[in-house]
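Give me the 3D structure for Molybdate transport system ATP-binding protein.
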Amino acid sequence: MLSAELRTRVGALDLDVALEVPARTCLALAGPSGAGKTTILRAVAGLLRPDAGRIACGGEPWFDGARRVFVAPELRGCGYLFQDYALFGHLSVWRNVAYGLRGLSRAQRWARAVELLERFGVAALADRRPGSLSGGERQRVALARALAPRPRALLLDEPLSALDARSRGRAGRELGRLLAELEVPALLVTHDFAEAALLGDEVAVLDGGRIVQRGPAPELAARPASGFVADFTGAVVLTGAVVAAADGERPLTVVALDGGGEVRSTDGGEGPVAVSVHPWEVTLEPPEAPSAGSASNRLAAEVVSVTEVGNRVRVGLALPQPLTAEVTGASVERLELAPGRRVVAVWKAAATRVTPR
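Predicted structure for Molybdate transport system ATP-binding protein (357 residues):
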């Protein structure tokens, strides 16, 4: 178990967090730049000394502000995967992996390095230099180096950010599989919720130095605790005020949107609120189409952009507040979607989350 209670100030950031990461578990710290993610990672690694709090791994204190305990970084036994991998260009792959091994003969260091390279499927690269490797290969070598000394905890700083978009998906799936096989607690930081969902058993969303919500990624996406979390998970967030609250006779909450229009939700709420819906829950219809189905929300809109994203198409919509729908290519052709086209955005009350503003 890795545990940390941290209180410290770094520049304008006032950090105050508490977290626990069990063995064989990866916790992804996710949030925008400046939220405090890397500060937490550096404090756990011993590269930053907090103002107060406590950090422990396996019951051993690494930092205790009250008792003035501070274990040096090199004595904590953390494996650290840097954002740019930080491989030594003048050393071969196997020597990079064996770099942190101390007190072993050359043969023992070589054997440990090759064992890990084989595990990660890159043993054939043992005698090559990092400059000749692909991004995904460098990532696996860097992870092997982080694990070579048999660390007590693994720390990963934006592990996919150094990869190009073409290789990020495959490398992310591979890294997720490797993390699932580890026996130590892992703490990962990222600014990308999709990456956090892919790699973390749980996701802790940070904002302004605080953990604002923690849980499995699907739970955060389905039940965000705030408009900030909803926006971070990829939902569209609209603002408004509750004008009719749900009760025994009225099953839906009605929210008047800032700028005009109303939406309905099965969630409760009162006063000023944030309303969120994921783009894939929004369908588009021509303005003249009769109302059909069970969708309670219908807002007239104008198409402002049509962007292909993989096998889906994101459609930007102009309303008093911007909205995004995610539809199929067939829908784009059927509705003749293009900038300037008038449509009706439709989605269900059950897909609409209401949270405090």
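The longest strand covers residues 297-309. Let me know if you want a second pass.
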